[in-house]
Amino acid sequence: MKKVFLSHATEDKPLVEHIYSRLKEKYPHVKSWLDKYEIVGGDSLIDKIAEGIDSSEKFIIFLSDTSIKKPWVNKELKKAITQEINRGSENFIIPVLINNIIKTPSFLEDKFYIDVSQYTEDELIKAIYNAIEEKQPNFKGETIENLSVQQVPSLHGLEVQFRATYWAEQIAFEIQLDKNFKKRVIKGFAQSPNTFSGSFVEEKENATYRICVASQKITPDNPFFLFFQFDEGVGKIVNFKLWKEGFKKPMGFITEVRG
Fold first, then answer.
1. pTM as predicted
2. Strands 93-97 and 253-258
3. What pLDDT, in 10s, does the model give residues 70-101?
4. Which among 101, 102, 130, 178 counts the fewest CB atoms within 10 Å?
5. Strand partners, 4
6. For the stretch 222-240, what's the b/e string if a residue is b when 16 or more beta carbons lie within 10 angstroms of its beta carbon?
7. Measured CA distances, 185 to 138, 171, 175, 254, 257 (Å)
8. What does DSSP assign to residue 249?
C-alpha cells in the first residue's frame, strides 16, 4: 500500500476530492491522505497533519492562486520540504498546477509540474499515478497504449494516423495490413504550430510495416503524430503491436516539420 498526502486549499477541495476518488477507484493500492477523511472532532490538526506527511511516501501539493496564499498549505509544504531533504529524495513532493499562479514557491521552481489544463481526466489521473510510482508510462515506448490509432479509408488508399497520448523518447510499432503494399507515404510528423524533428528506421515486408521513431520532443503540449497513406486497395489494419526490436536498430532517416 503506497500512501500519498494531498495538500490543498479548501476552495480547491471539489477538484481534489474528485482526484482522490478516481485514484482510489483506479489504483486501490494507493492510499491518499485527505483531511476530510483523516481528521475527526477533537483531533490536534498539527499532530494529525504532521503524522500524515511523515507516514506518506509522496506529498502532492495542488497549486492555485488561492492555495499559495493559505498559511496551512504553506506550513504543510515547509514540512514536506524538510522531509524531502531528510529523506534524500528529490521526488517526494509532486506539484499539481490547478491554474496560473503569480509566483511559484521557490523550492518548487526546478520541479516538473503536472498541469491540469494539459490533460483529459483519465490522462491526469494516469500522470499523477506515474509520478507517485516514479515511472514514465511510455519511456522508450514500452507500452503500446501510448499510441492511439485512427484509420480513414480514402480513394487513394488507406490513411492511418498514430498519435502519442503522453510522453515518449522513442516509439516503435508494427502494423499488419489486410493486403500486401508497395508504397507508403509519411504525410506528417507533427501538428502546426509546433516543430518536430526526429530520426527513424523502418522495415517493409509484404503486408507488414514497422517503424521506430526517436525524438526528445514528444510531450503533451507538443503533440506528435505519424500520418501514413498506403496503396490503393489496402483496406484496414488487422494487427497492431509493439516492435521491440526497433529500439535496437540504428536510425537511418531524419525528418523535420516546422509549423
1. 0.54
2. unpaired
3. 999 999 999 999 999 998 888 899 999 988 78
4. 102
5. 32, 58
6. bebbbbbbbbeebeebeee
7. 26, 18, 15, 15, 15
8. S
